[in-house]
Amino acid sequence: MIGRGVLLECLNSDDVGSVLVINRHSIGLTHSKLKEVILTDFSDLSAIGHEMTGYNTCFFCLGITSAGLPEKEYHRITYDLIVRFASGVLELNPGLIFCYISGAGTDETEKSRMMWARVKGKTENALSSMGFRAAYMFRPGFIIPKGKLRSRTPLYNSVYKVMKPFYPVLKKFSRHVTDTDKLAKAMIQVVLEGYRKNILENADINLIAEKITPTEADAPGGKP
Question: What pTM does this model have?
Answer without folding.
Answer: 0.86
